[in-house]
Design a protein that fits this description.
This protein has about 475 residues and is an alpha/beta fold. It has one domain: Amidase signature (AS) enzymes. It is about 40% helix and about 15% strand. The protein has an eleven-stranded mixed sheet with strand order 1-3-2-4-6-5-10-11-9-7-8, sandwiched between helices. Helix 9 crosses helix 12. The longest helix has 21 residues. Its EC number is 6.3.5.7. This is Glutamyl-tRNA(Gln) amidotransferase subunit A. Keywords: ATP-binding, Ligase, Nucleotide-binding, Protein biosynthesis, Transferase.
Length: about 475
């Protein structure tokens, strides 16, 4: 087998048995990256020298007979809205084009403690705002399955990099589906953890009550390994939680398929959904039934409100979070303005792309005097109703199965000029973020040559259960 086709477990075993060195593994990925990424454009920055230097350190540890962590010497990539000390962090925006991160995000610090190899930073929709990785100021990423199609977004660079074997795993962030939807489009596994399960410290904020960092991997087992490394409380992030996820590793064997009650929401199989995608998803659900799980129809009655609710809350929080990019503190500064206000306006006009400007304007309007109660406050009340729907459903079932996206990967430029059509790509994923739940996307079939992802949604802090349920299907 090619070194670049290994899973994390296989690569770790190969390193421990000295079948190959960490330096050789790193070189294999860098060579493939140099050859393949010209057509995919998954990476914005490649950190070749530091990766090779770290690989030598891991090889020295192995030669000294020291026990190495599972992720030691394993090449990975980091979405370019997560800080890696002394490495450029652009958020795919002109406004931060030359920004060098002054410190490590907590998740990066944890991976470095495991002696991982960071190959570089991956492309995304600017400030993580998008569903196709076409909103990047530095060009679109392409889907490895079909270069004429999008990889999904906003973590499209991370998903494409894993799918094309340019890295062994990657970190992404998920605000409304930004890990799960690209994982679905690229035929790999993406885990969006419970809100608070993973520290957000060092993640450049989009919508703070929705953002969550998670792993994008080749297999469910790999997702478990990476999640185990990055999860946990952090004193630098007051929303992170430790205690509820302390006991993590539950082998798939301990989740008895015959005892499983799986919910299928009737509101998720809607008019306008690709019939071939619906067929693949229903076949996956049927496999669980054939293996002994009890399938029950559940109702999430406020599902139709989720998208409008999300597109009020997320832009409102973005409007507040992005106010810091003023051309004064850091980042792009158009300093030739006639006064301070002119500097602010010109810097933001030149620095932000059209989608970011659109969402800032939407959010500022929703928060403005006279409209706050009508929009933002009402959206927060609807958000509570959406969470209540899930709470009620989980009284009857252990997990919920849904599609990830109503279509497979669409063509580049197909939806870029129609924001509303693009926003509909997230129709099955935004509810999970609004309710703060964990969910995983895993490949369950194809439409033609294009992958389709199944979404498994779980109760808060039950990542181990949805991963185990995913592993059952993956092995089947």
């Amino acid at each position: 087998m090619e070194l670049t086709e290994l899973t994390i477990t296989q690569a770790h075993e190969g390193l421990v048995k000295k079948e190959f060195s960490a330096f050789e593994l790193c070189q294999a990925y860098l060579a493939r990256l140099e050859k393949k990424d010209k057509e995919i454009s998954a990476f914005l920055t490649v950190t070749k020298d530091s990766a090779l230097s770290q690989a030598k350190k891991v090889d020295d540890m192995i030669l000294e007979g020291r026990e190495i962590p599972v992720l030691a010497g394993i090449p990975c990539a980091i979405k370019d809205n997560i800080l890696v000390e002394d490495v450029r962090c652009t958020v795919a925006s002109k406004i931060l084009e030359n920004y060098i991160a002054p410190y490590d995000a907590t998740v990066v610090k944890k991976l470095k403690e495991e002696n991982c190899l960071i190959l570089g930073k991956t492309n995304l929709d600017e400030f993580a705002m998008g569903s196709s990785t076409e909103n990047s100021a530095f060009g679109s990423t392409r889907n490895p399955y079909d270069l004429s199609r999008v990889p999904g977004g906003s973590s499209g660079g991370s998903a494409a990099a894993v799918a094309a074997n340019l890295c062994l795993y990657a970190l992404g962030s998920d605000t409304g589906g930004s890990i799960r939807q690209p994982a679905s489009f690229c035929g790999i596994v993406g885990l969006k953890p419970t809100y608070g399960a993973v520290s957000r410290y060092g993640l450049i904020a989009f919508a703070s009550s929705l953002d969550q960092i998670g792993p994008i991997t080749k297999t469910v087992e790999d997702a478990k390994i990476v999640f185990e490394a990055i999860k946990g409380g952090d004193e630098l992030d007051s929303t992170s939680v430790e205690s509820k996820i302390a006991n993590f590793r539950v082998p798939a064997a301990r989740v008895q398929i015959s005892n499983l009650r799986i919910g299928v929401p009737k509101e998720y199989f809607i008019k306008g959904m690709d019939p071939e995608v619906e067929k693949v998803i229903k076949e996956a659900i049927k496999k669980y039934e054939e293996m002994g799980a009890k399938i029950e129809e559940v109702s999430l009655s406020h599902t139709e409100c989720a998208l409008p609710c999300y597109y009020i809350i997320a832009p409102s929080e973005a409007s507040a979070n992005l106010a810091r990019y003023d051309g004064i503190k850091y980042g792009l500064s158009e300093s030739k303005g006639k006064d301070l206000l002119d500097v602010y306006l010109k810097s933001r006009e030149e620095g932000f792309g059209p989608e970011v400007r659109r969402r800032i304007m939407l959010g500022t309007y929703a928060l403005s005097a006279g409209y706050y109660e009508a929009y933002y406050l009402r959206a927060q009340k609807v958000r509570t109703l959406i969470k209540d729907d899930f709470d009620q459903a989980f009284k009857e079932v252990d997990a919920i199965l849904t599609p990830v996206s109503p279509t497979p990967a669409f063509k580049l430029r197909e939806k870029i000029t129609d924001p509303l059509t693009m926003y509909l790509s997230d129709i099955f994923t935004v509810s999970v973020n609004l309710a703060g739940l964990p969910a995983i996307s895993l490949p369950c079939g194809k439409v033609g040559k294009l992958p389709v992802g199944l979404q498994i949604i779980g109760k808060p802090f039950e990542e181990e259960k949805i991963l185990a349920i995913g592993e059952i299907l993956e092995k089947a």
